[in-house]
Amino acid sequence: MDCTGSMTKYIQGAKDYFGLHNDFKSYLYNNVPAKGGGDTPEDVLGGLDEAITKMTWKNDYRIILHVCDAPPRSSLYQLI
Question: Matching InterPro entries, A to Z (predicted)?
Fold first, then answer.
């Protein structure tokens, strides 16, 4: 991580994020069930769109952790 003065607001955002670790873990355990599957490829862009535009964010700085086990749907985003 770049820790120079110009990164102050981003460093604070990261601190806020990790300070909310227990909230995040609780949210995952209570609201994110594993279901379905076998329908590769994944709708990666749709998921990112939902996270960015439909979630309620508490801070101006946002971090998205993208975890997947399949390539995105569009061949435009896949290395062949």
Answer: Thr-specific_kinase-like, vWFA_dom_sf
